[in-house]
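Run folding on both entries below.
>entry_1
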Amino acid sequence: MRMICCLPVFLLIVTLSGASPYEGGIPPDPNLKINVILRRGWEKQQLAPPETASDAVFLRRVCLTAAGRLPTAAEARSFLADKSPDKRKKLIDRVLASPEYADLLAMRFADMLRIKSEFPINLWPNAVQAWHRQIRADLLADRSYRDMAREMLTASGSNFRVPHANFFRASADRSPLGLAKIAALTFLGIRLENLPEEEQKRFAEFFSRIRYKSTYEWKEEIVYTDFNPVRIKARALDGETFTINSPDEDPRRVFADWLLEDGNPYFARAAVNRVWHWIFGRGIMPDTDNLALIPGFRERFFNFFRFRTEADSNAPFNPELQAYLEQEFRDSNYSIRHLYRTILNSEAFQATAMNPDPKAVANFASYPVRRLDSEILVDALASVSGGYDRYMSVIPEPFTFLPPSTRAVTIADGSMSTGVLDSFGRPPRDSGRYCERNGASTESQRLYLLNSGTLYRRLSSLPWKLFKGKKINDRQRLDLLYLHLLSRYPTKEEFQTFGRYRKTFAPRQRHRVWPDVAWVLANSKEFLYYH
């Protein structure tokens, strides 16, 4: 079989020898505040500022990280030919203004918010579609994340007609404690179950008056605050206590006011760490959904319990950077797009990944190499080969069929998946935790990439689609394949390796080299990984 014969080529055709295509770009502005802070942190760790990734690596990295897609060959040609000193900044702005940015961020939010029609969340398709559309529209318009959070925490009404009312619908556990846990995890980055039981109960009082009522429409529910008068006492995580006369005062609104006031450090800290995690694969504080209580709080309120958690060791790699980004986030009216723009323009994001020193990687003085997220990888394979999978629901309530050429990134429903997506670690969206998304490489993934007949047929037809109607020589053909798959030109050594491999075919069979090259490039670490 051709796939078996190609294995030696896998080791030869994509090389790191000679002039590296992965580093040597124009460094970001070292005078940017974020870069000044990063350099101070690296100096304290006795680390040199990183080398800058090449333009080709940067182009690919930005498109995958902020738009969930590969750059086109035309985009790669244009960007690599552009000699403007500010072309990286312009590219970042362009990508962040694109609809694909909203698609990718809506997927990130859907993971966080547990947007799933079936068990155990049971939002059902109407609510899934309504909420996903609302989130995507909010992100495309760069709506303040604080305003989005307030609406999620306080919305009442039909979960089909008031999309953000689904926040408290999307929980397998609708007890006050269950709802408190999802609020703490989503907006504070804290696992409430790590707190003493009494403190959990006091915090859960904010969510003790939420009620649900079915309607005559299939699967619709009304979310509302219980109208029976009651006085409750609740305590927030900074120790502040509240006496709330419900329903004159909605306990959810009291909690939202506490969480979203300018002086509260929890909300901005969790959001900044979450966005850093989305961009780099781990947070400024590594365990992103298990943050510690704010320093000073535990000593004041939990000495009696001798309270300790795993989050005690979850310190930021650069506390000054964390504080700076939190303030930038507040000053931008809680704009996630601004946060992305600030981080993408940093030396940490534009660093080469060629420094394997663990200390450099831990402090983001070397870009962390990791496998593409499941949906992004499947979409990348589909976009280069032109062969998209078909997505449909597995449960007839009712059956949902997505249009052909649907990108996996845009699938609203966590219940709608395929074996390939699941194999590459797509999260089930049951809890909203990061650990649900699995970025590990497995044997089943390798078997699919190396032995899938469907994938091989799609990739084998790729060269003929690209070359059709073009009178170009072998060098130009190889350039086109590399630009299409890796967003760069082949090196001199790679072209020489290709020439040697081509000569192993009989003269009349040398056209067969092109499907092999396409298959090898798509199976390379350079294609499959953020780098």
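>entry_2
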Amino acid sequence: MAFDGITIAAMVQELNKNLEGGRFNKIAQPEADELMITAKGPGGQKRLLISASASLPLIYFTEKNKPSPLTAPNFCMLLRKHIGSGRILSIRQPGLERVIEFELEHLNEMGDPCRKRLIFELMGKHSNIIFCDEEGMILDSIKHVSSHMSSVREVLPGRHYFIPHTQEKADPFTIEEGDFIQLVCQKPCSISKAVYTSLTGISPVIAEEICYRASIDGSDAAQSLDEPARIHLYHTFLRLIEQVKEGSFTPTILYREQEPAEYSVVPLTQYGSGYERKTFDSVSSMLEAYYAEKNVLTRIHQKSSDLRRIVQTALERNRKKLLLQEKQMKDTQKKDKYKVYGELINTYGYGLEEGCRSFQALNYYTNEEITVPLDPSLSPGDNAKKYFERYGKLKRTEEALTEQIEETQSEIQHLDSISNALDISRSESDLSQIKEELTQYGYIKKHFSGKKGQKMQARSKPFHYVSSDGYDIYVGRNNFQNDELTFKFASGNDWWFHAKKMAGSHVVVKTPDGELPDRTFEEAGCLAAYYSKGRTAPKVEIDYIQKKHVKKPAGAKPGFVVYYTNYSLMASPDISGLKEL
């Protein structure tokens, strides 16, 4: 979710609660576009991180410190000189703009009190931190914006500060019903887009939420709303804005498939039961948790990109190979026809004239008369020999292709399972096992370090869940873990689950006597569905069987097993109700 005006309103409330009336103690600039301010207020000493990054502008309290350069940048030195021990008079947000203004008081060289404004603009690529005097003249900024860079506003020392209005947006706090209907409901676009492009500080997610609360499809045309729907939309919007004015915020992160999908400081009712909600005591803790988890997932995805490319390339190559092999196999179906031709020539060819191009004969296999083509330059015996040689060649080709197709299908199945393991990876140790498997099977070249007997050891452990009835459920993260889980960890009476005819993790439910409640069967099935290639489908067919009936063929690839007498169930890939240890 964008760092929108409503999130900033909640953050301003938190800033006032902790810092209003307090003082700045320390100002650091750890990055070119980032400040770390330590201040003491009613809430005690706090560390405030402000980022004017174009990709991720943020402001929140944090316990973590960041190292600063040995020589402070000029902007940081200027702030230290003027407001290094400044007293915070007020913290405010103009309208619902993505702007936070600190008004500070300090003593000048003569000992007289002076006021300054430190302004944080959190506007995506236009984000900036601007330092102004009491009259609004810019003293300096963390990013200088010249007329060559922007035709709307220069951000340079000596220029007058103002908030740029590049779009005709209304203030959500003051807009009246008539103006709302005129501004929003007359736009030639969807309703949700009309809301967030017409009102300051409203993000697309909040616009969709307003439409959802008003029981209106946000993708419908704004001009299609009738009068009652327009009035209802305005009053729904008004109730949300009243909530913001009152400072009634509930910082929440929504998780989808255990990954942070969205955050908000107001309840998002548009997201259904497929999302797990986690509330926080403060906006800062919500933001820090959300972006920390996002960064971990992003880092793992980046680190796995090379492995994904290797797997995807191998998959594409094998799928093309399989298509070619299947086409060649289709061509071998002609072999029986050539065998019949040869036999019919040997049976009826004794009376053929020299130079004959074909003859009619009764096919005694089907009791039908067929035409047998002949090469006029060859004798009947040589024609028969030619057809038998062609039959023999196609038969040998069919036998070879049958084996090759099985190998290619096995290769694709193996690569699909590795691709699934990459999808569910959460740590670098998960990736190291996958890399080891790809190296072992020749997809990655092995680099020798010169140390004999050295082998990469698996450090990650299977996912561990507890069912609603208290049974331990284990899920393999990759093929090596699947083998270990099924054939070394699980005992004979334990139950084994796997998505039917698709790549997925082995799921084992521990039980001493082989008895499980129905609900545990269903929950284990949900885990097998979630940790499979079918996780995006509404339902997945799951095979389940006691572990003692699961076998591994000799020489089979990791994760490959066979079983013959299994049960089946349909499971939803929703594990939001399960507890992970």
